[in-house]
Design a protein that fits this description.
By secondary structure, the chain is an alpha/beta fold. The chain contains 10 helices and 8 strands. The protein has a single domain, classed as 3-Layer(aba) Sandwich (Rossmann fold), CATH 3.40.50. It binds zinc ion (ZN). The site of zinc ion has 8 residues, from helix 8. One of its GO terms (molecular function) is ubiquitin-like modifier activating enzyme activity. This is UBA/THIF-type NAD/FAD binding protein.
Length: 269
């Protein structure tokens, strides 16, 4: 690996570089690395913020929404003046101000079966900061097919869940084979969410993504972390590969073609 940190970078990343666990080699890995952040909302905001600050060289942001005033209580990369502009544009503006070392690929689109595989395969790591089941299952399936790790996070009112899906570990369908039927799990818009909650959960996802890029530490592979902000408790529950998993099991799919990502996101046997 050729190290090419200039004096500004040695200064910017000095608190990384002085640690044995990162060092100049680790910082170079981050600068050479790429991450796809799915969603530039509550979870995506802190993820984008910290990955950009850490110097992850290329950050893809996928989102098809525009900034609304009701987002600003938690989506901290967007500002009052951004209301009405696409979230990917606001995210790009935020990162450009923070760190000129980082390139943002703004994907102003919704993930679907036609674009997800190509997008996921173009990055070293995916951070699932989405807010809906079809996207979550689509990301899991496409990332597994293309051997890209996923730092997954989800939030509900005062609670969060984080797990990391590596190409060698169990996948999201090993944990929850199918999505709950639409309408059975309410979303943030109907139930509300504590503004700071996605900050905590997104920061854990960003930590996992950075560790994956550095190839260091133990990620949440085969472990589901539960965070309860009301009780202020963290609990970790282990889970295993399911040999019958339709995505990573013995007779696994090699394409998402034909899968209906609606309802239970079911893969037919
Ligand atoms: Zn699986």
């Amino acid at each position: 690996m050729s190290l090419s940190l200039d004096s500004t970078q040695l200064d910017r990343y000095s608190r990384h570089i002085i640690m044995d666990e990162v060092g100049p080699e680790g910082q170079q890995k981050l600068l050479d690395g790429s991450a796809l952040v799915v969603g530039a909302g509550g979870l995506g905001a802190p993820v984008i913020q910290y990955l950009a600050a850490a110097g992850v060289g290329r950050i893809g942001v996928v989102d098809d929404d525009v900034v609304e005033r009701s987002n600003l209580q938690r989506q901290v990369i967007h500002a009052d003046a951004d209301v009405g502009i696409p979230k990917v544009e606001s995210a790009k503006k935020f990162v450009e101000r923070l760190n000129p070392d980082v390139t943002v690929d703004a994907h102003e689109t919704r993930l679907d079966t036609d674009n997800v595989e190509e997008l996921v395969a173009d990055y070293d790591v995916v951070v699932d900061a989405s807010d809906n089941f079809p996207t979550r299952y689509m990301v899991n399936d496409a990332a597994r097919i293309h051997d890209v790790p996923v730092a997954h996070g989800a939030i509900y009112k005062f609670e969060g869940q984080v797990t990391t899906l590596t190409p060698d570990g169990p996948c999201y369908r090993c944990l929850f084979r199918e999505a709950p039927e639409p309408g059975t799990v309410p979303d943030c818009a109907t139930t509300g969410v504590l503004g700071v909650l996605p900050g905590t959960v997104g920061c854990i996802q960003a930590t996992e993504a950075v560790k994956l890029l550095l190839e260091t530490g133990d990620v949440l592979e085969g472990r589901l972390l539960f965070y309860d902000a009301m009780d202020m408790t963290f609990e970790t529950v282990p889970y295993r590969e399911n040999p019958d998993c339709p995505v990573c099991g013995e007779s696994a799919i090699d394409s998402i073609e034909g899968i209906e990502y609606s309802g239970g996101c079911t893969i037919a046997d």
